[in-house]
Amino acid sequence: MEDSRKIHYFFLVLVFLFGCYGAYVNYKVLQEDTTPFIYDILNSYVTSIDHYRFLQQGDIIGFINHYITKYSRDYPALYMFQTFPFYAIFGISEDAAAMSNTIYLFILLFSVYFIGKKMKNSYAGFLSASIVLFIPGVLSFSRVYLPDFGLAAFFLLSLALFLYSDFLSFLGPLQGLACSSNIPFLCILEWLCSYYT
Q1: What contacts 196, CB < 8 A, 6 or more positions away?
Q2: Per-residue pLDDT tens digits for 24-73
Q3: Secondary structure (H, E, C), the chain
C-alpha cells in the first residue's frame, strides 16, 4: 500500500512537471510569435481588456453596462475573466491572454491522469497524461485565446469528478441530455462512465 501511494505521488509530481513544461514551451513560442489575434472573430481579446480596465479603475457600473452590451453570448459566461490574473501579473498583452490557457492545461493533464488512475491504475493515468500532452495540437491549441481548450479541460474535469464521486453519479445522464446537442458522443461516454462507477 505504501509503495502504491509513493508511486501515485511520484506520478502526480511528474504530471505537474509536464504541465510546467507545457507552460514553458507556450511561453517561449509566444515570445517568438508576432502573429496578431486575427482569428478572434468575436473580438473577445479587446472586450476582455475593456472588462479588465473597468474593474481595475473600480468602475463597477461601467463594467456591468459594458458586460451587458458588449459581451458575446456565444462564448461561456466567465471566459473573459480567465485573463485577469495574467493581465495583473504580466501586463495587458496578447501573450498574457494566450497564456491564460495554462490553467486549463494543468486541469486537462490532472483530469486525464485521475481518469486513467480510476479506470486502471496510476501507471495508466500517467501514460494517459503523457499521451495527451504530446498529441499534436494540444500544446499549440493551448496557446490560442479561444474557449475550446478550456471547455475540453472542464469536460474532462467533470468526467473525473463523476468517476470519483458516489453521490454525483446520477448527474451523468442529466448532463448527457443537456449537452446532447453539442457533443453527443462525449456526453454519452461520460454518462456511461458515471453509470458504471
Answers
A1: none
A2: 888 888 778 777 776 666 677 788 888 888 888 888 888 888 777 777 66
A3: CHHHHHHHHHHHHHHHHHHHHHHHHHHHHHHHCCCCCCCCCCCHHHHHHHHHHHHHCCCHHHHHHHHHHHCCCCCCCCHHHHHHHHHHHHCCCHHHHHHCCHHHHHHHHHHHHHHHHHHCCHHHHHHHHHHHHCCCCHHHHCCCCCCHHHHHHHHHHHHHHHHHCCCCCCHHHHHHHHCCCCCHHHHHHHHHHHHCC
